Amino acid sequence: MKPLNRINDFVVSFATINGSGSASANNLFARVVFRMGVPVSPKNIFPSNIQGLPTWYEVRVNENGYVGRRGDVDLMVAVNGQTLRRDYDSVVSGGYFVYDSSRPLPEDFQREDVVTIGIPMTRLVTEAIDNTKMRPLLRNIVYVGGLAALLDMELDLFVDALHRQYQKNERLAEPNIRALELGYAYARKQYPDTCQLKVQPRDRIGDGIMMDGNTAMALGAIYGGATVVGWYPITPSTSIIEAFGNYTQEFRLEESGHCKAAIVQAEDELAAIGIVIGAAWNGARAFTATSGPGISLMAEFLGLAYFAEIPAVVIDVQRAGPSTGMPTRTQQSDILACAYASHGDTKHPLLFPGDPRECFEMTAAAFDYADRLQTPVIVMSDLDLGMNDHFSPPLSWDPERRYDRGKVLDARALDALTERWGRYRDIDGDGICFRTYPGTHPEKGVYFTRGTSHDEYSAYTEDSATYIRNMERLLKKWETAAKLLPKPEITLAGEDPRLGVIFYGSTTPVAHEVIDHIQQRGCTVNSMRIRAFPFQEEVWDFIRAHDHVVVIEQNRDGQMRTLLINEGDLSPQKLLSVVRYDGLPVTSRQLITAMEKTLAAHGLLVPATSTATGDPS
């Protein structure tokens, strides 16, 4: 057996127990790799209970910049007895298995193609640390120290990271550093030159940052001018509101010390979106954050906002459904539910960020779009993008930027009107009408806000011609929305028209890696990343230009493919579906296998003699 020998290109998995404090230690390892200038991608795969069940934290190290989940494990750090056998079996041939040797491995752990490394983590902590409450937490730091030694990483980098982490309470830094040194010294002494996986400093980061999408979205809402939140807690979106609340204490404080923001926890999601709509109707910039079950409950009010033409911003951090589904698992499973939320002929603009910077930018822009279009705008994230850290370009904000509040008449504009104003009159042909804020004028600009059919002056009507005229105007506004929203990102590798690939959202980094692999197989691949719905003419041009178009997504039914077929009146045979929906962040090896199979079936690629294996998890 030849052990794996790689520099800055491998996957580490930490198998621990939920609620044991291991996530902080695992994140410490990922942050140090990043500070060494090497791109890294951590994924926290955790259960929906509070503590006690198995959890895995994967860290992909790849200096070439592939930061999507790869699949398979090169080095396993196993400290959970419940999953020891599964973790042992998941290591690839030639890989490394690090375990807590305070207790011996079962006798049947006899793989000859795996390097086994025992570090007595529990014993080392017990002998050196008097504080019994801290011992379970510090055991996690012991294995981080051991890993640092095995991978030839400088101990000082970890010590510095711990000082940063505990700068507000230096007393906690000392025992953590002690535990780190215990693991490092033991591995150095007992296993010199045993592990051939190494992390070496590089300069591949530039000005990039590591950030989770939920935090970026909270900042986007702050910079986008939000002052009102109506919400009901739901995994995996809750941390958006928590972060927004924290940031308001920095960015929304008046000289008096009062916070110029209202965060209202409602009794349910229906009430939450009602708060948002009411606040936006009054002129505030308001939003809510939720997930699939919340979207289901909000559907009726979203239809009201669409028909009454009231701005609202909704952030949907998607998780696995249907129903309660798997609350701590990721999917792109709310595409159709959000696009057509509510009954009747209803459509909502959707935004699809692909990294934390776009989470920030698109959330901030969503408030402009909602005000300009006078309609709900939904930002489509998911658990992977929202809760995991991602390598991303830095966030930036133009200090000269001004909010687009759309077509709002103030008192002076109302006085200057020479003809009767109608709330639902389209006077300039873009489908968007002028509105007023409540209390703008003592006499003019008053109207009823209706969820029932109405004429141009907001009077109730059941006249068929008037109803059709209003519905067709809303379609004209939909065409205007397509011109405002972000256009797709298209990459042309050549003039070969046979194959195009479409992807969106959190699948972006993996899709790039898969496309590179397919092109190395000799197949030209043009690609398009969809960033918004409604779809622009560029989307249809791209699809028309290719014989076959593969749509990559994370749901069972190919919802983006369905949306494209429906909106573009396309032949289903034109779009090929490659999907993964196991609830885990999609891996490049999974998609490579699926893509090769799909392309081979359509004569676009000669079947590989040996394809990449799927992720055993």
Description:
The protein is an alpha/beta fold and 617 residues long. Strands 11-10-12-13-15-14-20 form a seven-stranded mixed beta sheet, sandwiched between helices. Strands 3-4-2-5-6-7 form a six-stranded mixed beta sheet. The protein is globular. Residues 610-617 have low confidence and may be disordered.
Quickly list its features.
single chain, 617 residues, alpha/beta, Pyruvate-ferredoxin Oxidoreductase, domain 3, Rossmann fold, seven-stranded mixed sheet, six-stranded mixed sheet, 18% strand, globular, disordered C terminus
Percentage of residues in DSSP E strands: 15-25%
Class from secondary-structure proportions: alpha/beta
Count of extended strands: 22
**Unreliable runs:** 610-617
The CATH architecture classification of the largest domain is 3-Layer(aba) Sandwich
Please tell me the total number of domains: 4
| Termini gap | 24 Å
- Classified in CATH, the superfamily of the largest domain is Pyruvate-ferredoxin oxidoreductase, PFOR, domain III
Identify the overall geometry: globular
- Helix share of residues? 25-40%
CATH topology of the largest domain: Pyruvate-ferredoxin Oxidoreductase, domain 3
Q: Give Rg in angstroms.
A: 27 Å
Query: How are the strands of the biggest sheet laid out side by side?
Result: 11-10-12-13-15-14-20
- Indicate the mean pLDDT: 95
Biggest sheet details:
7 strands, mixed
User: What is the tally of helical segments?
Assistant: 19
CATH top-level class of the largest domain: Alpha Beta
